[in-house]
Amino acid sequence: MSSHQPLDSDTVLWSADAGDRAGRPLLVLLHGYGSDERDLFGLVPHLPEEFVIAAVRAPLAPPFPTPGYSWYAIDGLESRDPVHVTASAHRLLAWTDAVAGRLGEGPGATHPAVGLLGFSQGGAVSLQAMRLDPHRFAFAVNLSGYATPGALPRDAELAEVRPPVFWGRGTHDDVIPPFLVEHTTEWLPRHVELSGRVYPGLTHSVSEQELADVRVFLEKRLADVGSAAD
Q1: Residue 97 is part of which domain span?
Q2: Peptide bond connecting 65 to the previous residue in cis, omega within 30 degrees of 0
Q3: How many structural domains is the chain composed of?
Q4: Residue 106, by phi and psi: left (phi above 0), alpha (psi -120 to 50) or beta?
Q5: What is the crossing angle of helices 83-100 and 121-132, to 10°?
Q6: What is the DSSP letter of 12?
Q7: Which of 24-28, 72-76, 103-107 has the highest mean pLDDT?
Q8: CATH number at residue 131
Q9: Residue 1 lies inside a defined structural domain of this protein
Q10: Residue 94 Cα to chain centre, angstroms
Q11: Residue ranges of the Phospholipase/carboxylesterase/thioesterase domain (predicted)?
């Protein structure tokens, strides 16, 4: 169990009522900088209905006049320290401890599997959370995000587990610095089972084609959960 303060459960948006969540795989949505839980929750109609979907709110308020919330600061020298990405990832782990309980089949299990879908900062936090606990999450979807530079103690363990990760980004994304894209391109294949696509002309956003590809990826993950339960 994590000793870090969890995310605010009162702000979470759910796709299903409390009585209709247990026993179904959970997909957690993590929004980007300056946004909130309502942003990615708009994707719910495009995602497989077998998932229980929870859109969480990042814990920090960015400097005025930027609206919304952030997972970590992006301005100043201190923002380059990966410890801030890790801190938010710990808070995500603490929230899944509180909400999902023990994962898997059998007594006490709330969800047979938990996956992550993050955009930009949310994608970076998703990958960081997998690195902190390689067995916690069944998969991750990283949209216009990146892998945070710097080693973590369980990276070698993650490379053995090799969870499925979808990474989608656009050729015209001018928000994520090129050195982070290069690092992620090298890092992901060495640590996860990578799939994904680079979308011509796409900016720092999500396209209809990318959503269609994400749905295919998620349907495959549902098949994985079903196979593990048999």
Answers
A1: 9-229
A2: yes
A3: 1
A4: left
A5: 70
A6: -
A7: 24-28
A8: 3.40.50.1820
A9: no
A10: 14
A11: 20-220
pLDDT at 56 over 80: yes
Residue 146 covered by a domain: yes
Would you call 19 exposed, middle or buried from its count of C-beta atoms within 10 A (0-12, 13-18, 19+)?
exposed
Q: Is 23 inside a domain boundary?
A: yes
Among 125, 192, 183, 184, which Cα is nearest to 157's? 192
Token pair listed for 186: 């090298």
Q: Which amino acid is at 75?
A: D
Q: How far apart are CA 152 and CA 15, in angstroms?
A: 33
Q: Supply 18's token pair.
A: 């409390």
- Residue 102's contacts (CB-CB under 8 Å, 6 or more residues apart) are 108, 109, 110
Conformation bin of residue 181: beta by default, left when phi > 0, alpha when psi is -120 to 50: alpha
pLDDT for position 101: 56
- In-domain check, residue 175: yes
Token pair for residue 66?
Answer: 């930027």
- The answer to whether the beta carbons of residues 205 and 228 sit under 8 Å apart is no
- pLDDT attached to residue 54: 97
Tokens 């509180």 locate to 98
Question: Is 220 strand, coil or helix?
Answer: helix
pLDDT one-digit tens code per residue, 217-228: 999 999 998 776
For residue range 81-122, what is the model confidence (pLDDT) as tens digits? 899 999 999 999 999 988 875 444 444 458 899 999 999 999
